[in-house]
Design brief:
alpha+beta; Beta Polymerase, domain 2; Hydrophobic Seed Protein; 4 domains; two-stranded parallel ribbon; 26 helices; 13 strands; about 10% strand
């Protein structure tokens, strides 16, 4: 525990609080006992919790958020010099003693504290340290879930991420408390769910949410996917396919992790992927860590799209005369369901637009692969015209989707073609953007209107877009050629107008 006691955060807080009773509780102590790095710090103080949080934020040059002024609950977000994003929460001690407060926490492994004024003494009234050694998740009491049903979801996250077994009585209490999730604010629910999506073994967490009865209150659209049959090459119903895609996505993203373990990529499928796409490991890793808001990374949002990429199949399923299952328009329906769930969870507008684009276009790389040969420059331009930078997320989800569809039946030739298509798309985005994705304009709207005697209107936009697409396709390379192309587009459009 010495490294934790000497942590700069604890030293800063200790210097600010003076003689005020202050305790580090919960996750930081638990993770240190587990030998894990600590990124979240929770402090109980006997008075002035918000004032102390503000002072800590000022000294660290961090961001301060008063989460609940009435209950004196504040948060500081600080990016350390090493690039770590640390969360520091301060809450007012409400019990007569720290031991009394610890009895009201969620799980025994989080009911452990350190007195900042006596840091060598571990305060552990619920024997949480023993449960850590036994790898057991045990609730502090049945009342813990009645007081806050969100602890059901949190329990799933702890069990999966730590590899702990949920004690039998605790599991029963979680099952009976799951309906209480309906009263949880969307902001709190969103935060906890995206912690699950940011962790490892996401598919296992979803399965446990289902078993505990929490799925109707977290990701209800997934329930309708159970039993929705699919034809070959699919091997599973839509629900189980979705979970496999989530699991496969984790494997794909692990391949692009900063620390790459070649021993874990010893099979043909991931070996081929690493060989074809490994050159973009740094760019992909950077892309996945980008955020629209401080709370969620693109990596977590990508797992959200994996959960919802086929959510529209339940309402679009039909069988043709040969008995084949069809799902016409399921991409549009899935994107809409994904959008609605995003609004329900209070995601930011930019996040919702991103997840919609990924879900709406998740089939496009597969369709490009099926066309035979590599995608044309025009096809690449049109792909990114529709997706923008979300196209990278589309490519990653598509890789997982293909593995989820075929599993062990995946034809090597098809996988090879799909990897080549993906490589062409990523290459265009990161290495050939000015040539194939966003070529610099050779004309502007005023030039077109003056040269051809046109008035402002939709035709000008069509001409500009047509010229830019021709540039991306390599058909137009100079201003003179751009004017020729513009004249052709105008003639064709005016001819169509006269015919109509």
């Amino acid at each position: 525990m010495d490294a934790l006691i000497q942590h700069p955060i604890l030293q800063t807080v200790r210097a600010i609080v003076g003689s005020t009773s202050t305790y580090l509780v919960g996750g930081a102590v638990r993770d240190r006992l587990l030998g894990k790095p600590v990124y979240d710090f929770d402090f109980f103080v006997s008075k002035d919790a918000l004032h102390i949080a503000r002072k800590v934020a000022n000294i660290l040059a961090g961001a301060f958020y008063p989460l609940d002024e009435k209950r004196q609950y504040g948060r500081v977000i600080w990016n350390s010099s090493t690039g770590e994003r640390l969360k520091i929460d301060f809450a007012l001690q409400v019990g007569e003693s720290i031991e009394a407060d610890l009895h009201h926490r969620d799980f025994t492994i989080n009911a452990i504290a350190i007195d900042l004024h006596q840091p060598k003494r571990l305060i552990d009234p619920m024997q949480g340290a023993q449960d850590i050694l036994a790898k057991k998740l045990r609730a502090c009491s049945r009342e813990a879930f009645r007081a806050d049903p969100l602890r059901v979801v949190r329990g799933i996250r702890f069990a999966v991420s730590l590899g702990f077994r949920i004690e039998q009585a605790t599991w029963r209490w979680m099952v009976e408390s799951s309906p209480g999730l309906i009263i949880i604010s969307r902001e709190r629910l969103c935060e906890e769910l995206f912690r699950i999506l940011s962790a490892t073994s996401v598919a296992s967490s979803i399965r446990l949410l289902d078993r505990v009865g929490a799925l109707p209150y977290t990701f209800p659209e997934l329930l309708a996917l159970k039993g929705v049959e699919q034809s070959s090459p699919h091997r599973q119903d839509v629900y189980h396919h979705t979970l496999e895609v989530v699991q496969r996505l984790e494997e794909i993203l692990a391949m692009f992790a900063p620390v790459f373990d070649e021993e874990k990529q010893a099979n043909l499928v991931t070996g081929m992927a690493s060989l074809r796409l490994g050159r973009y490991r740094a760019q992909i890793n950077k892309y996945l860590t980008e955020r629209f808001t401080p709370e969620r990374s693109k990596r977590a949002l990508l797992f959200f799209t994996a959960l919802y990429h086929d959510s529209g199949k339940a309402s679009s399923a039909s069988q043709d005369e040969t008995g084949q299952w069809r799902f016409f328009g399921h991409e549009q329906i899935s994107a809409r369901l994904c959008e609605l769930r995003g609004w329900e969870l209070a995601l930011a507008h930019d996040e919702i637009e991103w997840i919609k684009k990924v879900v709406l276009n998740h089939m496009r790389p597969i369709l490009l692969s099926n066309n035979g040969g590599l995608p044309s420059r025009r096809a690449i331009y049109r792909f990114f015209r529709q997706t923008g930078e979300a196209g990278v997320g589309v490519c990653l989800l598509s890789l997982a989707d293909v593995l989820g569809i075929y599993g062990y039946t995946l034809p090597a030739e098809f996988w090879s073609n799909h990897l080549d298509t993906t490589r062409q798309l990523l290459q265009a985005w990161w290495e050939e953007k000015q040539e194939k994705v966003l070529p610099p304009p050779l004309l502007d709207g005023n030039e077109i209107m003056q040269t051809f005697g046109l008035q402002p209107g939709p035709l000008i936009g069509k001409v500009l877009e047509g010229v830019r697409e021709a540039q991306a396709a390599g058909e137009v390379q100079s201003k003179a050629e751009a004017l020729q192309m513009a004249e052709k587009i105008i003639t064709d459009e005016q001819g169509r107008f006269q015919e109509s």
